């Protein structure tokens, strides 16, 4: 974490102090904001490597802040919220967050999640040998880190790319939720099956001809997902 810039957006001054102390001790430069509007100003003035974002704030809630950040940047975002129901977590991931941590929380666990999130954002999956796929609609070149749909580049966030790469590397093979979580997110995310469902949904929306009737990213109910190759056009 040394040398990284962190932005904490939360209306609880005690929590901001705890997070600031934790990450400062780890070598981060930490900026803080007490509400969403101030957080967006800080984001522009001091572009961070990572954002830690509360949801329930005055003036502008965290959902809207997350949405606006995603219009500007793919910077990793961790939501830190007292809202702990499944629908809240799914909504957080859907609006662009990379991770979701509920309050109360362990500062050391939050620090570990931050390290893991940054690793995923910055590392490039490698297969050892170049791997590509093309069928006329979808083209994937993992060696060049390039994804095209009908010849047009598709912008994938880091975790979306890692997930797609792992599925392609194991094309036509069913991968369990546990395998996907372990290889894409890390073993500490073993209970976070919602993450897989949300990111598969994101990929379907970007890659499939009809996301509601997917051809590539197929679900094996109760087990996992597989990437199914198509006959070239």
Written overview of the protein:
This protein is of the alpha/beta class and 233 residues long. It has 2 domains: 5-122, Response regulator (Rossmann fold); 132-227, Arc Repressor Mutant, subunit A (Orthogonal Bundle), CATH 1.10.10. It is 41% helix and 20% strand. It contains 8 helices and 12 strands. The chain has helices at 13-25, 36-45, 62-72, 86-94, 107-122, 158-169, 177-185, 193-207; strands at 5-9, 29-33, 50-53, 77-81, 99-102, 132-134, 138-141, 146-149, 152-153, 175-176, 217-220, 224-227. The strands form 3 sheets. A 5-stranded parallel beta sheet has the order 2-1-3-4-5, sandwiched between helices. The chain has a 4-stranded antiparallel beta sheet with strand order 6-7-8-9, with no helix packed on it. A 3-stranded antiparallel beta sheet has the order 10-12-11. A hairpin with a 4-residue loop joins strand 7 (138-141) and strand 8 (146-149). Helix 2 packs parallel to helix 3, helix 6 (158-169) crosses helix 7 and helix 6 packs across helix 8. The longest helix is centred in the middle third of the chain and has 16 residues, at 107-122. The protein is elongated, with a radius of gyration of 18 Å. The mean pLDDT is 92.
